[in-house]
Write a structure and sequence with these properties.
By secondary structure, this protein is an alpha+beta fold. It folds into 2 domains: 69 residues, Winged helix-like DNA-binding domain superfamily/Winged helix DNA-binding domain (Arc Repressor Mutant, subunit A); 189 residues, Beta-Lactamase, CATH 3.30.450. It contains 11 helices and 9 strands. Helix 3 packs across helix 4, helix 6 runs antiparallel to helix 10 and helix 7 crosses helix 9. The longest helix is centred in the last third of the chain and has 21 residues.
């Protein structure tokens, strides 16, 4: 689920977009929900003149940021090349990827790596389960910070400005278990800060579970959330949940140590589960 910033501007604002910025502005309309656009649709949606759109599209085509398919356009191969370069140049990626693969191999579930980007979370690595359910998360997926385990983990360690923005922003309800009230959000946030763990049960997509833990670098700098994603059927009782939370906590601790973290580790899956049970946040009766 993509929650990109709204780019629908009024006519006066659109006309004020500098010429050099217009190709980049058009790129913001391409998203998983609508990956293909015609020239007419882009001009209509952006409010830019059709001739201006066409000039921008030709520049983007020239440098392979867009490719043409009949009368429509989709993102081009340049994004694949640049995306791979960004991943490879990330200092933590080379160290984190073997941990993600090991987590996937032991649990049989999808493992994920998410980072904070402005007021959103972004999944930058997704190691898909080899069999069974393949979850909705894909690399580059952006998420709001108020629901989902990785998002909640990122929020717990985010700067105060990001936290205040998230708590004050609207909180759409995606499923029946999406936490939307300020009381719910702050209770779960406090629990995550105290235990260094987060769990979500169908908050973004029905019948899915996500478990998350923090990863830190040198000097205690928060880097990312590492998580497991699975179908709800993977956790019929609290014991399966405890097993994977313990493994996830140990993985986050060991990975953080490899990235230079040397302070005490405060992850506490047992206390986390006790509190979830007390809050009646678990989807089953133990």
């Amino acid at each position: 689920m993509d929650h990109s910033t709204d780019h629908h501007l009024n006519a006066d604002q659109e006309s004020a977009i500098p010429i050099l910025e217009r190709p980049f502005h058009l790129l913001t309309f391409f998203c998983p929900e609508r990956p293909i656009w015609t020239l007419s649709a882009l001009a209509r949606e952006s409010g830019l003149p059709k001739a201006s759109c066409l000039r921008s599209i030709r520049v983007l085509e020239k440098y392979r940021f867009l490719r043409r398919e009949g009368d429509a356009y989709r993102l081009g191969s340049q994004f694949i090349r640049l995306g791979a370069f960004v991943q490879e140049s990330s200092p933590s990626r080379g160290i984190a990827l073997p941990y993600l693969e090991r987590l996937r191999n032991i649990t049989g579930h999808t493992s994920q790596w998410a980072v904070l980007d402005g007021f959103d979370g972004v999944y930058t690595e997704v190691v898909q389960a080899q069999a069974g359910l393949r979850l909705y998360i894909v690399p580059g997926q952006r998420v709001d910070l108020y629901c989902g385990a990785s998002a909640r983990l990122l929020l717990a360690f985010a700067p105060n400005s990001v936290r205040e923005h998230t708590f004050q922003a609207p909180h759409p309800k995606y499923t029946r278990t999406t936490p939307t009230s300020l009381e719910e959000l702050k209770t779960l946030d406090t629990l995550t800060q105290k235990t260094w763990m987060a769990a979500s049960f169908g908050e973004v997509v029905e019948h899915s579970v996500e478990l998350a833990a923090p990863v830190f670098g040198a000097n205690g700098h928060f880097l990312a959330a590492i998580s497991i994603g699975a179908a709800s059927t993977a956790y019929p009782t609290i014991e399966e949940l405890r097993r994977d939370l313990t493994l996830l906590n140990e993985t986050a601790r060991d990975l953080s140590a490899d990235l230079g973290y040397s302070k005490p580790w405060l992850g506490d899956p047992d206390f986390f589960l006790t509190m979830l049970k007390g809050l009646q946040w678990l989807p089953f009766q133990d």
